[in-house]
């Protein structure tokens, strides 16, 4: 005889395992100089603003373990370095099985990239897919203190 504690979870009781925050691979991130040392040209105008976006950001819900698909936009004005895109892709992919709320994921990406790049300013916007008729858009911003 099978008891309810031995039966597999069904419906609302089902939950998928999730990884913790230590699965976020910050070490994979890499940079390159914002200005080439061998380029003697003067760059006129304001400092460059870089915008990187992907619609493949997919951490998982910490409660259910189900994926939360979102569009992530990274907008920043570099100081000395830029983020290398292949390393960024690996970093963002490391969130794939991490159980983290939308708000926390957005702030965590900002914190990791600010530590890596020390930019003049940075904004992270995560626009998560509609779930249960509710759309979530999180924006986290950083502006470097005056030096």
Automatic annotation (TrEMBL):
UniProt xrefs under SUPFAM superfamilies: Tetrahydrobiopterin biosynthesis enzymes-like
Keywords recorded for this protein, A-Z: Cytoplasm, NADP, Oxidoreductase, Queuosine biosynthesis
Associated pathway: tRNA modification; tRNA-queuosine biosynthesis
Localisation: Cytoplasm
Residues binding substrate: 83-85, 102-103
InterPro entries for the chain: GTP-CH-I_C/QueF (IPR043133), NADPH_dep_7-cyano-7-deazaG_red (IPR050084), QueF (IPR029500), QueF_type1 (IPR016856)
A single GO BP: tRNA queuosine(34) biosynthetic process
Kinase listed as a keyword: no
GO molecular function, one term: preQ1 synthase activity
Claim: Kinase is one of the keywords in the record: no
EC identifiers of the protein: 1.7.1.13
Primary localization class, coarse: cytoplasm
GO cellular component: cytoplasm
Family that this chain belongs to: Belongs to the GTP cyclohydrolase I family. QueF type 1 subfamily.
The protein's role, per its UniProt record: Catalyzes the NADPH-dependent reduction of 7-cyano-7-deazaguanine (preQ0) to 7-aminomethyl-7-deazaguanine (preQ1).
Name used for this protein in its record: NADPH-dependent 7-cyano-7-deazaguanine reductase
Organism: Deinococcus maricopensis (strain DSM 21211 / LMG 22137 / NRRL B-23946 / LB-34)
Gene: queF
